[in-house]
Amino acid sequence: MAEPKKIVACLDIQNGKVVKGVNFAGIKEVGDVLERAKLYAQMGADELCFYDISASVEGRVLFTKLLGQMVQAVDVPVSAAGGVRTPDDFARVLDTGVTKVSMNSGALASPSLVEECANRFGSDKVVVAVDAARVGDTWHCFNQAGAHDTGTKTLPWLKQCQESGAGEIVVNSIDTDGVREGYDLQLLQAVCQEVSIPVVASGGAGSMEHILRLFQQVPGCAAALGASIFHFDLVDIGELKRLLRQAGIPVRQ
Question: What is the pTM of this model?
Answer without folding.
Answer: 0.92
